Amino acid sequence: MTTPSVETLPSDSILDRLTSSDSEIKLKAIREVKNQIIGNRTKNLSYINLGAVPAVAAALSDSDSATNLIVQAAAALGSFACGVDAGVSAVLEAGAFPHLIRLLSSSEEKVVDAASRSLRMIYQSKLAPKYDFFKQENMQFLLSLLDSENENLTVLGAGIVIHSCETSAEQSILCYAGALEKLTSLLDGSLSQLDASLDSLAAIVKNNPEAGSKFVELDSGRALSSVIELTKDRYPQTKLLACLCLICLLGDSGQVGDEASFAFSRLIAEKEDLQKVAFDANAIDKFHGFLQKHPLKPKRLEGMFLALADLCAKLECCRSSFLSSEVLNLVVDALTHDDASVRTAACICLRSVSRSFKNLNAGRFMNERIVFPLVQLLSDLSTSVQVAALAAISNIVVDFMPHKSTFMQCGGVKELVQLTKAMDSSLRLNAVRALRNMLFLTDKMCKEVIFVELTASSMASLICDPESCVQVQALALVRNFVDGCVYSVEYAFAEDGIILDAVGKQLRKSSKVEIGIQGLYVLSNIASGNEFHKEAVMQLLFPQAENGSQSFFNQFLQSNDNHLRAAAIWVITNLTFPESPGAFGRIVNLRSLGIVSQIKKMFNDSCMDVKLRARIALGQIITFGDG
Amino acid sequence: MAASKKVITREEWEKKLNDVKIRKEDMNKLVMNFLVTEGFVEAAEKFRKESGTEHIDLATITDRMAVKKAVQSGNVEDAIEKVNDLNPEILDTNPQLYFHLQQQRLIELIRNGKIEEALEFAQEELAPRGEENQSFLEDLERTVALLAFEDVSNCPVGELLDISQRLKTASEVNAAILTSQSHEKDPKLPSLLKMLIWAQNQLDEKAAYPHIKDLSSAKLEDPVI
């Protein structure tokens, strides 16, 4: 920033007026300077350079100064110090600091307000003199500030703690003197008292288990519950401070640590900004440190794993930090913990970390040390452990070749297939999803293993499962099965085409968009096969007896859902591929059924993807002549 | 499908409403909150006497209203001094509000035809704010554009001279003062009415019942079946 020239200031000498012996002139001058510099950094610096600060400060030391003059001077000094380090040093050099402290004991409320506000500004800077808590009179003075009825004095007291409490000895003496109690009582106060209180509490309990437990025992835990309650506050700044306060408390060995990690987890769940704050506050390293303290109670482990899961839910930087530390090993060890909630939480944590595409790609998770215990958990006695394990596996098996064999060698496929037949629908759902993910871009060997284990008839019954969410996953699973080369398409025709029949049945029956989309992509993949495959799709979509314009397929083409229309056109594109010998015959059929005219209407579809697909399909159709 | 909705007659509805108890003190506090937040000092004082409802320091409302009134009548410099006397932190820690007040000062100079003074003020006071914060530049350019037109009331940025611009700035200052006094910047009553409308909309989907359409009379309309 450029420092503006002194010439921009009033030409009549302001310095003369500031030091005038006429108190009226002096008062006016100080007020003028104050109004010039408030909110105005450039003017502030100009007046500092001009040497206005010592002139204003002199008014404080003059015992003849009237109340109003002192108020104006103190306010001006506060503004000089507000956010400008040059201002802070000028105020300190001018010797104003002890005078401001003295004025805190004034009987005039306005003087006290102005002086405390100025001191607060000074204490926000690193340049402020360090407050010596070990001097008895200092501590007493601080406590009297915190005890005061005057809001500005209490906030100043908290500001001094925030500024000067750094070492564990300082934390301890503040605890011992009863500062925690006084600061906690400010939590019920105004917004600025609240923020100052949270900030100063964090300064006292930070990395100090003893101070932490003292805080927790305060008022039989009520102080802690207020902080936890504040994490739901609607002011982001307050939330943030409550969050930092909680991170400080995580290391506590008593009940507070348990509560803190659950509250922390609730606080940051789904909120990327707060996750970033926690990451910047080294939350992952802190958890790592806490997790190494043995032995930990199950409740504690569970809370920390859930908190880690929430931390790693969105941000890749958190996942990297998690994986580069030893935390992963600790979580993996917990997969075999005696307590079911700990096992569940460890799985949830793994699922969250394994969202990292980069690390999946590197095969970070596909090793026996992780996969073997996870597969074991598929036959756990607790359903919630099973579901959590399935969810983690669903992510991990997306892993690309050649790591998938590890999972098969551990007996994972057999366990997953077993769970697709479970009574509990959430188990079926997650098992089918895991298999579906495993089939994503996989090779012939893997497909073969899964197919033999799962069987065509089971797939057909999963497509017709009573729960529609399972139906969707089953169709998506078949879609991945028949994706790729011609041999893949053949799977749909096993056992007399029982799978294809089930797909057709669902497409006709279901009104759910997602089922339509997945079903159509199954057909689209099949239609990319050979002549026989394409004809089978034609037969399924347009049985001889049906009128084309009323066919369910025509309904899909006219759907409001962009994805559904796009999927429907994909099927037509694959059916009319010009190189295939039967294309002409199929196009004639599609024309007579009114499908071609329907696609023509989509030439300028509002959805870009649909428009593009429609144009490609029409391009293929027109190579055989237009009508 | 109106036919399948549950119908609640006026009698049933009024009976249900009678079962809901509202405390008088709560009502009074809501009214007081409205008067204080909106700055009706004298009404608040009268209401306090007649209803015995507690209130915040009325002197702070008087000060706040004085600031608001100064902006509304175009005495921006006076308003700034008053805000600074009230609490220097308000403008020291709120650059956006500070900029808007300075912008309003420039607008008033232009309105009064003090072109040279306006130019000088824009250069010395506003330009550095634009350097400090890019987001102010657009507003600054729009305001300075006023200087380029002979007939400012009919130019593309003429709305800056509208009384509504003053009111906008005034309400921004009002809100900042309220916040600095740890007071909510909006009264509670409008939120309650918003909730009423929302709840009615929700219920409309499920039932036909006596509905309040006109908020000012709060009259129950007969259910449409």
UniProtKB/TrEMBL annotation, chain A:
InterPro entries assigned to the protein according to its UniProt record, in alphabetical order: ARM-like, ARM-type_fold, Armadillo, ARMC8/Vid28, HEAT
SUPFAM superfamilies to which the protein is assigned, alphabetical: ARM repeat
Domain of life: Eukaryota
Localization: Cytoplasm; Nucleus
Gene3D superfamilies: Leucine-rich Repeat Variant (1.25.10.10)
Source organism: Lupinus albus
Entries under SMART domains matching the protein: ARM
Signal peptide: none
Name of the protein described by the UniProt record: Uncharacterized protein
Pfam families: Arm (PF00514), HEAT (PF02985)
Record's keyword terms, sorted: Cytoplasm, Nucleus, Repeat
From TrEMBL, chain B:
CTLH domain boundaries: 60-117
The protein, known as: Putative transcription factor interactor and regulator LisH family
